[in-house]
Protein backbone atom coordinates (compact mmCIF):
# COMPACT_ATOMS: atom_id res chain seq x y z
CA UNK A 1 0.00 0.00 0.00
CA UNK A 2 1.37 3.38 -1.04
CA UNK A 3 0.15 5.02 2.16
CA UNK A 4 2.51 2.73 4.10
CA UNK A 5 5.42 3.15 1.70
CA UNK A 6 8.67 5.00 1.99
CA UNK A 7 9.10 8.72 2.47
CA UNK A 8 10.26 8.82 -1.13
CA UNK A 9 6.82 7.82 -2.45
CA UNK A 10 4.99 10.12 -0.05
CA UNK A 11 7.22 13.05 -0.99
CA UNK A 12 5.39 13.17 -4.31
CA UNK A 13 2.20 14.28 -2.55
CA UNK A 14 1.12 17.92 -2.86
CA UNK A 15 -0.88 19.43 -0.01
CA UNK A 16 -2.65 22.78 0.29
CA UNK A 17 -4.59 24.22 3.23
CA UNK A 18 -7.63 26.49 3.05
CA UNK A 19 -8.45 29.13 5.69
CA UNK A 20 -11.06 31.86 5.99
CA UNK A 21 -10.30 35.48 6.93
CA UNK A 22 -10.81 35.99 10.69
CA UNK A 23 -13.60 38.40 11.65
CA UNK A 24 -12.29 39.73 14.98
CA UNK A 25 -9.21 39.82 17.19
CA UNK A 26 -9.99 36.58 18.98
CA UNK A 27 -10.54 34.73 15.70
CA UNK A 28 -7.39 36.28 14.31
CA UNK A 29 -5.40 34.90 17.23
CA UNK A 30 -6.77 31.42 16.52
CA UNK A 31 -6.06 31.86 12.81
CA UNK A 32 -2.35 32.56 13.40
CA UNK A 33 -2.02 29.69 15.89
CA UNK A 34 -3.37 27.34 13.21
CA UNK A 35 -1.27 28.95 10.47
CA UNK A 36 1.93 28.73 12.55
CA UNK A 37 1.29 25.04 13.13
CA UNK A 38 0.48 24.20 9.50
CA UNK A 39 2.80 26.49 7.52
CA UNK A 40 5.91 24.39 8.38
CA UNK A 41 4.25 21.31 6.81
CA UNK A 42 5.52 22.40 3.37
CA UNK A 43 2.18 23.05 1.64
CA UNK A 44 2.24 23.92 -2.06
CA UNK A 45 0.16 26.91 -0.94
CA UNK A 46 -2.31 27.97 1.69
CA UNK A 47 -5.43 29.78 0.51
CA UNK A 48 -7.80 32.27 2.09
CA UNK A 49 -11.45 32.42 1.07
CA UNK A 50 -13.35 35.45 -0.19
CA UNK A 51 -16.45 36.09 1.92
CA UNK A 52 -19.86 35.74 0.27
CA UNK A 53 -20.37 38.58 -2.21
CA UNK A 54 -16.96 40.13 -1.54
CA UNK A 55 -17.65 40.97 2.11
CA UNK A 56 -14.07 40.14 3.08
CA UNK A 57 -12.29 41.62 0.09
CA UNK A 58 -9.89 43.85 2.04
CA UNK A 59 -9.32 41.32 4.79
CA UNK A 60 -8.57 38.57 2.27
CA UNK A 61 -5.94 40.73 0.52
CA UNK A 62 -4.35 41.86 3.78
CA UNK A 63 -4.13 38.43 5.33
CA UNK A 64 -2.83 36.67 2.19
CA UNK A 65 0.01 39.15 1.73
CA UNK A 66 0.86 38.87 5.46
CA UNK A 67 0.98 35.05 5.26
CA UNK A 68 3.65 35.18 2.55
CA UNK A 69 5.68 37.79 4.41
CA UNK A 70 5.40 36.22 7.88
CA UNK A 71 5.65 32.52 7.07
CA UNK A 72 7.38 32.41 3.68
CA UNK A 73 4.71 29.97 2.48
CA UNK A 74 3.02 30.56 -0.90
CA UNK A 75 -0.47 31.93 -0.42
CA UNK A 76 -3.47 32.10 -2.74
CA UNK A 77 -6.37 34.55 -2.51
CA UNK A 78 -9.85 33.37 -3.45
CA UNK A 79 -11.92 35.72 -5.60
CA UNK A 80 -15.59 35.67 -6.60
CA UNK A 81 -17.39 37.65 -9.30
CA UNK A 82 -20.95 37.53 -7.92
CA UNK A 83 -22.57 40.95 -7.41
CA UNK A 84 -19.69 42.95 -8.88
CA UNK A 85 -18.94 44.61 -12.21
CA UNK A 86 -15.89 43.58 -14.23
CA UNK A 87 -14.36 46.94 -13.27
CA UNK A 88 -14.80 46.24 -9.54
CA UNK A 89 -13.40 42.72 -9.87
CA UNK A 90 -10.50 44.18 -11.89
CA UNK A 91 -9.72 46.54 -9.00
CA UNK A 92 -9.47 43.59 -6.63
CA UNK A 93 -7.18 41.72 -9.05
CA UNK A 94 -4.95 44.78 -9.41
CA UNK A 95 -4.97 45.05 -5.60
CA UNK A 96 -3.71 41.45 -5.45
CA UNK A 97 -0.96 42.38 -7.91
CA UNK A 98 0.08 45.37 -5.79
CA UNK A 99 0.20 43.12 -2.72
CA UNK A 100 2.39 40.70 -4.74
CA UNK A 101 -0.22 37.94 -4.60
CA UNK A 102 0.28 35.71 -7.63
CA UNK A 103 -2.14 32.85 -6.91
CA UNK A 104 -5.91 33.10 -7.26
CA UNK A 105 -8.70 30.59 -6.62
CA UNK A 106 -11.29 31.92 -9.10
CA UNK A 107 -14.97 31.35 -8.33
CA UNK A 108 -18.37 32.54 -9.38
CA UNK A 109 -19.71 32.75 -5.82
CA UNK A 110 -23.31 32.44 -4.68
CA UNK A 111 -26.06 35.06 -4.51
CA UNK A 112 -26.55 36.83 -1.15
CA UNK A 113 -29.92 35.01 -0.77
CA UNK A 114 -27.90 31.86 -0.13
CA UNK A 115 -26.07 28.89 -1.59
CA UNK A 116 -28.15 27.17 -4.24
CA UNK A 117 -30.36 30.21 -5.03
CA UNK A 118 -30.60 31.20 -8.73
CA UNK A 119 -27.56 33.20 -9.88
CA UNK A 120 -28.07 36.54 -11.62
CA UNK A 121 -24.87 37.99 -13.04
CA UNK A 122 -24.18 41.68 -12.41
CA UNK A 123 -25.24 43.60 -15.58
CA UNK A 124 -21.61 44.63 -16.19
CA UNK A 125 -20.12 41.55 -14.57
CA UNK A 126 -18.69 38.15 -15.40
CA UNK A 127 -21.38 35.54 -16.00
CA UNK A 128 -19.47 32.60 -14.55
CA UNK A 129 -16.11 31.44 -13.28
CA UNK A 130 -14.83 30.58 -16.78
CA UNK A 131 -15.30 34.22 -17.85
CA UNK A 132 -13.63 35.32 -14.60
CA UNK A 133 -10.58 33.14 -15.32
CA UNK A 134 -10.27 34.72 -18.78
CA UNK A 135 -10.64 38.20 -17.21
CA UNK A 136 -7.87 37.50 -14.68
CA UNK A 137 -5.57 36.33 -17.48
CA UNK A 138 -6.10 39.63 -19.29
CA UNK A 139 -4.93 41.57 -16.26
CA UNK A 140 -1.85 39.61 -15.27
CA UNK A 141 0.10 36.42 -14.97
CA UNK A 142 -1.51 34.46 -12.12
CA UNK A 143 -1.52 30.81 -11.07
CA UNK A 144 -5.26 30.09 -11.17
CA UNK A 145 -7.21 27.30 -9.48
CA UNK A 146 -10.94 26.71 -9.99
CA UNK A 147 -13.67 24.70 -8.26
CA UNK A 148 -15.24 21.41 -9.32
CA UNK A 149 -17.88 19.11 -7.88
CA UNK A 150 -17.57 15.32 -7.57
CA UNK A 151 -21.36 15.11 -7.05
CA UNK A 152 -22.06 17.74 -9.77
CA UNK A 153 -22.71 21.43 -9.06
CA UNK A 154 -26.36 21.72 -7.91
CA UNK A 155 -27.10 24.19 -10.73
CA UNK A 156 -25.65 22.08 -13.53
CA UNK A 157 -28.36 20.71 -15.84
CA UNK A 158 -26.61 17.32 -16.14
CA UNK A 159 -23.14 15.72 -16.04
CA UNK A 160 -22.34 16.79 -19.57
CA UNK A 161 -23.03 20.46 -18.74
CA UNK A 162 -21.09 20.22 -15.50
CA UNK A 163 -17.96 18.72 -17.07
CA UNK A 164 -18.12 21.06 -20.07
CA UNK A 165 -18.18 23.97 -17.60
CA UNK A 166 -15.04 22.65 -15.91
CA UNK A 167 -13.39 22.22 -19.29
CA UNK A 168 -14.16 25.87 -20.16
CA UNK A 169 -12.50 26.97 -16.92
CA UNK A 170 -9.36 24.94 -17.61
CA UNK A 171 -9.27 26.00 -21.27
CA UNK A 172 -9.55 29.63 -20.13
CA UNK A 173 -6.27 29.22 -18.25
CA UNK A 174 -6.79 27.53 -14.87
CA UNK A 175 -3.94 25.23 -13.84
CA UNK A 176 -5.94 22.89 -11.59
CA UNK A 177 -9.39 22.22 -10.19
CA UNK A 178 -10.04 21.75 -6.48
CA UNK A 179 -13.04 19.66 -5.54
CA UNK A 180 -15.87 20.51 -3.23
CA UNK A 181 -15.76 18.30 -0.13
CA UNK A 182 -16.95 14.72 -0.62
CA UNK A 183 -17.15 11.75 1.72
CA UNK A 184 -17.58 8.86 -0.67
CA UNK A 185 -14.29 8.36 -2.49
CA UNK A 186 -16.01 6.61 -5.38
CA UNK A 187 -17.76 9.92 -6.23
CA UNK A 188 -14.35 11.56 -6.59
CA UNK A 189 -12.82 8.71 -8.59
CA UNK A 190 -15.82 8.58 -10.97
CA UNK A 191 -15.63 12.35 -11.41
CA UNK A 192 -11.95 12.18 -12.33
CA UNK A 193 -12.79 9.50 -14.92
CA UNK A 194 -15.53 11.67 -16.42
CA UNK A 195 -13.16 14.65 -16.61
CA UNK A 196 -10.35 12.60 -18.21
CA UNK A 197 -12.80 11.10 -20.72
CA UNK A 198 -13.83 14.64 -21.65
CA UNK A 199 -10.22 15.59 -22.37
CA UNK A 200 -9.50 17.46 -19.12
CA UNK A 201 -5.90 16.73 -18.16
CA UNK A 202 -5.35 19.30 -15.42
CA UNK A 203 -4.88 18.01 -11.86
CA UNK A 204 -8.13 17.47 -9.93
CA UNK A 205 -7.14 18.12 -6.35
CA UNK A 206 -9.17 16.20 -3.75
CA UNK A 207 -10.82 18.68 -1.35
CA UNK A 208 -10.92 17.05 2.07
CA UNK A 209 -13.12 18.35 4.88
CA UNK A 210 -12.04 16.96 8.26
CA UNK A 211 -15.14 16.85 10.46
CA UNK A 212 -14.42 19.24 13.34
CA UNK A 213 -18.13 19.48 14.07
CA UNK A 214 -20.42 16.94 12.43
CA UNK A 215 -23.63 19.00 12.79
CA UNK A 216 -22.03 22.06 11.18
CA UNK A 217 -20.41 20.08 8.37
CA UNK A 218 -23.64 18.16 7.64
CA UNK A 219 -25.62 21.43 7.43
CA UNK A 220 -23.09 23.01 5.11
CA UNK A 221 -22.88 19.85 3.00
CA UNK A 222 -26.65 19.88 2.48
CA UNK A 223 -26.51 23.47 1.19
CA UNK A 224 -23.69 22.86 -1.26
CA UNK A 225 -24.87 19.53 -2.68
CA UNK A 226 -22.46 17.16 -0.90
CA UNK A 227 -24.14 14.03 0.39
CA UNK A 228 -23.55 12.61 3.85
CA UNK A 229 -23.54 8.82 3.58
CA UNK A 230 -25.60 6.99 6.21
CA UNK A 231 -22.48 5.19 7.53
CA UNK A 232 -20.87 8.57 8.21
CA UNK A 233 -23.87 9.95 10.10
CA UNK A 234 -23.97 6.69 12.10
CA UNK A 235 -20.37 7.11 13.18
CA UNK A 236 -21.04 10.54 14.69
CA UNK A 237 -24.50 9.81 16.06
CA UNK A 238 -24.78 10.69 19.77
CA UNK A 239 -21.37 12.38 19.97
CA UNK A 240 -22.69 15.97 20.20
CA UNK A 241 -21.72 16.24 23.87
CA UNK A 242 -18.60 14.09 23.73
CA UNK A 243 -15.94 16.22 22.05
CA UNK A 244 -13.10 13.85 22.82
CA UNK A 245 -14.68 10.84 21.09
CA UNK A 246 -15.96 13.12 18.31
CA UNK A 247 -12.37 14.24 17.61
CA UNK A 248 -11.07 10.65 17.60
CA UNK A 249 -13.80 9.49 15.23
CA UNK A 250 -13.19 12.52 12.98
CA UNK A 251 -9.47 11.71 12.80
CA UNK A 252 -10.20 8.06 11.98
CA UNK A 253 -12.74 8.98 9.27
CA UNK A 254 -10.43 11.50 7.58
CA UNK A 255 -7.42 9.19 7.85
CA UNK A 256 -9.40 6.38 6.22
CA UNK A 257 -10.50 8.71 3.42
CA UNK A 258 -7.07 10.09 2.55
CA UNK A 259 -5.12 6.84 2.88
CA UNK A 260 -7.62 5.11 0.61
CA UNK A 261 -7.21 7.90 -1.95
CA UNK A 262 -3.41 7.70 -1.76
CA UNK A 263 -3.66 3.95 -2.33
CA UNK A 264 -5.80 4.68 -5.39
CA UNK A 265 -3.04 6.91 -6.77
CA UNK A 266 -4.29 10.34 -5.72
CA UNK A 267 -1.35 12.68 -5.10
CA UNK A 268 -2.90 16.14 -4.58
CA UNK A 269 -4.98 17.14 -1.56
CA UNK A 270 -6.57 20.42 -0.44
CA UNK A 271 -7.63 20.46 3.22
CA UNK A 272 -10.47 22.68 4.44
CA UNK A 273 -9.02 23.66 7.82
CA UNK A 274 -11.83 25.84 9.24
CA UNK A 275 -8.88 27.76 10.76
CA UNK A 276 -8.08 24.82 13.04
CA UNK A 277 -4.88 22.88 12.84
CA UNK A 278 -5.17 19.69 14.87
CA UNK A 279 -6.93 17.31 12.44
CA UNK A 280 -5.15 18.64 9.36
CA UNK A 281 -1.78 18.54 11.10
CA UNK A 282 -2.38 14.89 12.04
CA UNK A 283 -3.46 14.05 8.47
CA UNK A 284 -0.39 15.74 7.00
CA UNK A 285 1.76 13.67 9.37
CA UNK A 286 0.00 10.49 8.23
CA UNK A 287 0.89 11.51 4.68
CA UNK A 288 4.53 11.65 5.61
CA UNK A 289 4.94 15.36 6.33
CA UNK A 290 7.04 16.66 9.21
CA UNK A 291 7.48 20.31 10.19
CA UNK A 292 10.30 21.82 8.13
P1 LIG B 1 -19.12 28.17 -12.13
O1 LIG B 1 -17.98 27.34 -12.57
O2 LIG B 1 -19.36 29.45 -12.84
O3 LIG B 1 -20.42 27.23 -12.23
C1 LIG B 1 -21.62 27.48 -11.53
C2 LIG B 1 -22.78 26.74 -12.20
O4 LIG B 1 -23.16 27.43 -13.38
C3 LIG B 1 -22.46 25.31 -12.62
O5 LIG B 1 -23.59 24.50 -12.38
C4 LIG B 1 -22.18 25.44 -14.10
O6 LIG B 1 -22.43 24.23 -14.79
C5 LIG B 1 -23.17 26.53 -14.49
N1 LIG B 1 -22.71 27.30 -15.67
C6 LIG B 1 -21.59 28.05 -15.77
N2 LIG B 1 -21.51 28.61 -17.00
C7 LIG B 1 -22.60 28.21 -17.67
C8 LIG B 1 -23.10 28.47 -18.99
N3 LIG B 1 -22.44 29.26 -19.86
N4 LIG B 1 -24.29 27.92 -19.33
C9 LIG B 1 -24.97 27.12 -18.47
N5 LIG B 1 -24.54 26.85 -17.20
C10 LIG B 1 -23.39 27.39 -16.82
N6 LIG B 1 -17.52 30.76 -2.51
C11 LIG B 1 -17.23 32.00 -2.03
O7 LIG B 1 -18.13 32.85 -1.94
N7 LIG B 1 -15.97 32.32 -1.61
C12 LIG B 1 -14.94 31.45 -1.68
O8 LIG B 1 -13.81 31.78 -1.30
C13 LIG B 1 -15.20 30.13 -2.18
N8 LIG B 1 -14.20 29.21 -2.29
C14 LIG B 1 -14.48 27.96 -2.82
C15 LIG B 1 -13.42 27.04 -2.98
C16 LIG B 1 -13.66 25.77 -3.50
C17 LIG B 1 -12.50 24.82 -3.67
C18 LIG B 1 -14.98 25.40 -3.88
C19 LIG B 1 -15.26 24.01 -4.40
C20 LIG B 1 -16.03 26.31 -3.73
C21 LIG B 1 -15.80 27.60 -3.23
N9 LIG B 1 -16.81 28.56 -3.11
C22 LIG B 1 -16.53 29.82 -2.60
C23 LIG B 1 -18.20 28.23 -3.50
C24 LIG B 1 -18.55 28.61 -4.97
O9 LIG B 1 -18.56 30.01 -5.09
C25 LIG B 1 -19.92 28.01 -5.27
O10 LIG B 1 -19.86 26.62 -5.29
C26 LIG B 1 -20.66 28.54 -6.50
O11 LIG B 1 -22.02 28.08 -6.44
C27 LIG B 1 -20.11 28.07 -7.85
O12 LIG B 1 -18.91 28.60 -8.11
P2 LIG B 1 -18.05 28.08 -9.39
O13 LIG B 1 -16.83 28.90 -9.45
O14 LIG B 1 -17.91 26.61 -9.36
O15 LIG B 1 -19.06 28.50 -10.56
Task: Chart the SSEs and their pairings.
Elements (H helix, E strand, L loop, with lengths): L6 H4 L3 E6 L5 H14 L6 E4 L8 H15 L3 E6 L5 H13 L4 E5 L21 H11 L3 E6 L10 H13 L4 E4 L5 H13 L6 E5 L5 H11 L5 H7 L6 H21 L4 E5 L5 H9 L6
Parallel strand pairs: 1-2, 1-8, 2-3, 3-4, 4-5, 5-6, 6-7, 7-8
Bound molecules: flavin-adenine dinucleotide (FAD).
Flavin-adenine dinucleotide (FAD) binds next to strand 3, strand 4 and helix 6.
List the defining traits of the structure above.
single chain; 292 residues; alpha/beta; eight-stranded parallel β-barrel; 11 helices; 14% strand; binds flavin-adenine dinucleotide
Descriptive report:
Helix 7 (185-197) links the parallel strand 6 and strand 7 (204-208). Helix 10 packs parallel to helix 11 (278-286). This protein has an eight-stranded parallel barrel, surrounded by five helices. Helix content is 45%, strand content 14%. With 292 residues, it is α/β, with parallel strands linked by helices. It has eleven helices and eight strands. Flavin-adenine dinucleotide binds next to strand 3, strand 4 and helix 6.
Average pLDDT value? 95
Q: Give the overall shape, derived from the CA principal axes.
A: globular
Give the oligomer, counting copies of the same chain as homo and different chains as hetero.
Answer: single chain
Structural class: alpha/beta
Strand segment tally? 8
Which bin fits the share of residues in helices? Answer: 40-55%
Question: What spatial order of strands do you see in the largest sheet?
Answer: 1-2-3-4-5-6-7-8
User: Rg, please?
Assistant: 18 Å
The helix-strand sequence is HEHEHEHEHEHEHEHHHEH
Distance between the ends? 25 Å
* Poorly predicted segments: none
Sheet with the most strands? 8 strands, parallel, barrel
- Provide a count of the helices: 11
- How much of the polypeptide forms β-strand, as a percent range? 5-15%
**Attached small molecules:** flavin-adenine dinucleotide
Amino acid sequence: RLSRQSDYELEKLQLSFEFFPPKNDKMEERFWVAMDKLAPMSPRFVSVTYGAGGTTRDRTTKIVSRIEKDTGVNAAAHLTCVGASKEEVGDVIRGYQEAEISRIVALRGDPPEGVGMPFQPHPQGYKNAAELVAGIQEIGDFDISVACYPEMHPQSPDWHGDIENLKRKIDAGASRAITQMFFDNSDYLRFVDRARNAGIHAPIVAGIQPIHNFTQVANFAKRCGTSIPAWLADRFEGLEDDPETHALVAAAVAAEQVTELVDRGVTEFHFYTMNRSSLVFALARLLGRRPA
